[in-house]
Design goal:
Layout: E1 2-4, E2 12-14, H1 15-47, H2 67-96, H3 98-120, H4 128-160, H5 163-191, H6 200-215, H7 223-228, H8 232-242, H9 246-264, H10 282-297, H11 300-313, H12 320-342, H13 344-365, H14 384-402, H15 404-412, H16 418-473, H17 482-504
């Protein structure tokens, strides 16, 4: 079967080829989510009182190291590994190619998961430093793989997918991350009665990673990366893989070649001193990196972690994590299904507006509120204020998963010129993980210092500022080819320069 592609072409694309182009890089996102979900339950199983006398509980966990210190080290190692991976990929991206990055990510996933399994099997009776060190090393290696995957996956998908379908395909990567979180939570929840099963979840990760690695031999290298390397013969073969017949592949190949020639003749000649921080790139940097910054500083990581506590106080107990993951998955699916119909800006506006409303309600609801004293009314029923908090949590999380969650990565993979796309996305991934780490580090202290109500208020103001940023800077890329997006940004940069010259040049009397 095939599907119509926009951009003035009636090209038909093979569903089988499109699925293969999607699934291998998307499994990189699924494994990232799975690692998050599985580890949260592994820590819970290891820390549960019932496991203290369990013969399968590793002796290194019961040694003198404080459990919260071990937990912090284990949980943060994934994020730090991902930051390291995104730094490593920055100078290598255009040499390696997108498919090679996905292969490296899968290999690192396998190695990392092996160390995680070893910490609960062969090294179960090891010393404290060896046992915790092995698990931390495994998660760090896995994190380096995440850094490679979070760069290679959206870039490969964006460069290989036809314009009319690119939004849904790239946004579906975020859906796979949420599916992975749900699988990790569900697997942990089903095994929660057996504390000796905590390392089994990591073993499943090895099998999924191996599948991801093997699937990379079923897909071609990125057509646009090959064009960047002047390998036109292999680039055409990549298009033949995607399109059902040679006529369609030839037409698309000619279109891409013509659009790349148009870029060269725009007056912005490629010079040796042109780089991602040079003048012509500033507009794309403002859009892409601005979205990454607002994605993190609007507080989503900290609010999601606090949501579990609120849900448990509402009587949802250990089901809360699974319910939260299911809701996030549904919200992301909505974005995936509608992004190519409504466009990127519409979904960003919708998602950010939902976040502003939810954070405004949370600010009021948490004013003078205590989970210890205000979680039930005098009749013993849940307090009205708590219903407001639960409702607002869902609206906030839904808004993020409709907007910033998938769309920021989609736009980042679309707006940079071909020769700088690899480095620009790598820089965006670095910023994402660095800010993620800093926000999670800072928020507990901010909460203690000014209270939850004011913390949510700050996030609400920042979400409001993000709406202004989207209105002023973000361009709509729906239905445009990657080359057409670059031309649009170049024209806007030139118009901005002309406007600036008109405003700053003094009028001289005749």
């Amino acid at each position: 079967g095939g599907v119509g592609v926009g951009g003035g072409s009636s090209s038909s694309v093979s569903y089988v080829s499109l699925f293969l182009i999607f699934i291998s890089p998307a499994l990189g996102g699924l494994l990232f989510g799975y690692e998050i979900g599985a580890t949260s339950f592994a820590i819970s199983m290891l820390s549960s009182p019932s496991s203290l006398s369990d013969p399968f509980r590793p002796s290194w966990w019961t040694s003198s190291i404080p459990s919260h210190a071990a937990e912090g080290l284990i949980l943060s190692s994934l994020c730090l590994g991902a930051l390291l991976g995104s730094i490593l990929v920055f100078p290598l991206t255009d040499r390696l190619g997108r498919r090679a990055e996905i292969r490296i990510a899968a290999t690192l996933y396998i190695c990392g998961a092996l160390f995680e399994v070893l910490s609960g099997t062969w090294l179960r009776d090891a010393s404290r430093s060896v046992g915790v060190g092995c698990l931390v090393l495994g998660r760090t290696i896995f994190g380096v793989g995440v850094g490679f995957a979070m760069h290679g996956a959206p870039t490969y998908m964006a460069e290989m997918t036809p314009p009319a379908m690119r939004g849904s395909v790239v946004a579906a990567k975020e859906f796979m991350v949420m599916l992975g979180v749900l699988m990790g939570y569900a697997g942990g929840y089903s095994a929660s009665g057996n504390n000796d099963h905590w390392f089994h979840m990591y073993a499943w990760g090895i099998l999924i990673s191996l599948t991801m690695l093997l699937l990379t031999w079923s897909i071609p290298r990125s057509v646009r990366w090959l064009m960047l390397r002047s390998n036109q013969e292999e680039a055409f073969r990549s298009l033949q893989f995607l399109y059902r017949d040679n006529t369609e592949a030839e037409r698309e190949f000619a279109t891409i070649c013509r659009q790349i020639e148009d870029q060269q003749s725009m007056g912005e000649q490629r010079s040796s001193n042109r780089h991602i921080f040079s003048g012509p790139m500033r507009r794309a940097l403002q859009v892409g990196l601005g979205l990454i910054v607002f994605q993190q500083i609007t507080g989503q990581p900290s609010i999601v972690s606090y949501a579990t506590v609120v849900f448990e106080n509402a009587g949802l107990g250990e089901n809360s994590s699974v319910l939260l993951a299911i809701f996030m998955l549904c919200a992301t699916a909505t974005s995936v299904a509608t992004v190519d119909r409504f466009g990127r800006k519409t979904l960003l506006y919708t998602g950010c507006s939902m976040m502003v409303v939810a954070l405004a309600i949370l600010t009021g609801a948490f004013h003078g509120y205590s989970l210890d004293t205000d979680n039930t009314s005098q009749e013993g029923k849940p307090h009205v204020r708590q219903f407001m908090i639960l409702f607002s949590m869902f609206v906030y999380i839904g808004g993020y998963q409709v907007g910033f969650g998938p769309i920021a990565w989609l736009v980042l993979g679309e707006i940079f010129p071909l020769e700088f796309r690899g480095q620009a996305v790598a820089f965006g991934v670095q910023m994402n993980f660095a800010l993620n780490f800093l926000v999670q580090l800072a928020v507990p202290g901010i909460q203690d210092g000014i209270g939850l109500s004011n913390t949510f208020g700050i996030f609400g103001v920042l979400s409001g500022l993000s709406l202004i940023f989207i209105w002023k800077y973000v361009i709509e890329t729906k239905g445009l080819s990657l080359e057409e997006i670059e031309l649009k940004l170049q024209r806007m940069t030139q118009q901005g320069r002309a406007q600036h010259l008109r405003e700053t040049t003094p009028l001289v009397a005749p």
